Amino acid sequence: MREFKQVSRFWEDLKSGRFAQMVRETSKGKSLRNSVEVYHVIKPLFAENNDVETVYCIFLDGQNHILAIEKMFSGTINCATVYPRELIKRVLALAATALVLVHNHPSGNTEPSAEDKALTKKVIFSLTAIDVILHDHIIVGDGYHSMSDDGWMNSATDQCRQFLSHQS
Fold first, then answer.
1. What is the largest CA-CA distance in the chain?
2. What domains can be seen in the chain, in order of their start residue?
3. How far apart are CA 32 and CA 98, in angstroms?
């Protein structure tokens, strides 16, 4: 019976957001090395509202230590609008040098859509212009998809850097 109460309490904390708040607070100062670590840190945060797309940012310092994990945007069942200006405001306020963008697909499908890729390019461009690195864009659903792990992120970042270098 005691075990049932502990499991019940865990699920209660998870769904109420108390667990998500604890994850955000205890993650500060920890380092992230790869997409698997990002997924394990961020996945519990989507338990609060898993029926709408929600966008989190993990703001990092120069050694990839977590400065903050913040919910930046939320939307509907199949979209969330992201405003790069708001990302830049938080990057500057936190003195972040890098970030990881993470959002969920309530459908469970983790494949990036054309809109996801277009948004990622827009964010890469905006951040690169102020010397901030977008390490990854991760989509959480039934598992996760890392745009960095699949090589797409490097290609998009290279395209952005080439464009910016030709503009000077």
1. 68
2. 2-167 (3.40.140.10)
3. 11
* 101 within 8 A of 138, measured Cβ to Cβ: yes
Which segments of the chain are extended strands (E)? 54-60, 66-74, 98-104, 133-141, 143-146
- What is the reported pTM? 0.84
Quote the crossing angle between the two packed helices 2-16 and 18-27, to the nearest 10°: 80
**pLDDT tens for each residue of 45-100:** 887 667 889 999 999 999 999 999 999 988 887 878 888 999 999 999 999 999 99
Please state, in angstroms and as integers, the Cα–Cα distance from residue 58 to each residue in 114, 130, 135, 158, following that order.
Answer: 23, 17, 10, 22
DSSP string over 116-140: HHHHHHHHHHHHHTTT-EEEEEEEE
| Alpha carbon 84 to chain centroid, angstroms | 13
Instruction: For 104-121, write each residue's pLDDT tens digit.
Output: 999 999 999 999 999 999
